[in-house]
Amino acid sequence: MLAHLPAPTYFPRSWRVTKFQSTGIGNLYKCELLFLRGVSPWTPVGAVPDLPGLVALAHRLLAANRGRWTQSSTGSLHRGQTTYVYGRRAQPCRRCGTAVRKDEQGERVTYWCPVCQPEHPPAAVQNGTIG
Ligand SMILES: [Zn+2]
């Protein structure tokens, strides 16, 4: 889906191009997808391990939520349990218990876990592609 678009430098621009973010739902998916893949929100797209896998996961999440009033990335539709990090600043990460952080990223805010989403993806560091 993104293959025909010009290569973006960082995630916010790429997702804006796809118009996900025009509804506000897109930012939720961006934050949740990066968490699920263990990718820091500040990772350049070129340094993301398995970018096709991330895009495939995005398709699965969007398909799973199609037609639902409540958007969920956790699989739960219970209030307060629909996201891993989005909208959960200072609450414990569902995976490791570290406080979820919220930071500004351009004109958007991003939610992320500093432990589950390290600044440099471990796989890329191990492969010597960055660092
Ligand atoms: Zn975590």
Topology diagram in text:
Blueprint: H1 11-17, H2 25-37, H3 51-65, E1 101-105, E2 108-112, H4 122-126
Antiparallel strand pairs: 1-2
Helix pairs in contact: 2-3
This protein binds zinc ion.
The site of zinc ion has 7 residues, from loops.
In short:
The chain has 131 residues and is α+β, with helices and mostly antiparallel strands. Helices cover 31% and strands 8% of the residues. The longest helix has 15 residues.
Beginning-to-end CA distance, first to last residue: 29 Å
CATH architecture: Orthogonal Bundle
SSE arrangement, N to C? HHHEEH
How many domains comprise the coordinates?
1
Helix content: 25-40%
Q: Give average pLDDT, whole number.
A: 79
Can you tell me the overall shape? globular
Can you describe what's shown?
31% of the residues lie in helices and 8% in strands. The protein has 131 residues and is of the alpha+beta class. The chain has a single domain (11-126), classed as Helicase, Ruva Protein, domain 3, CATH 1.10.8. Strands 1-2 form a two-stranded antiparallel sheet. Strand 1 and strand 2 (108-112) form a beta hairpin. Helix 2 (25-37) packs across helix 3. The protein is globular, with a radius of gyration of 14 Å. The termini are far apart. Bound molecules: zinc ion. Zinc ion (ZN) binds next to loops.
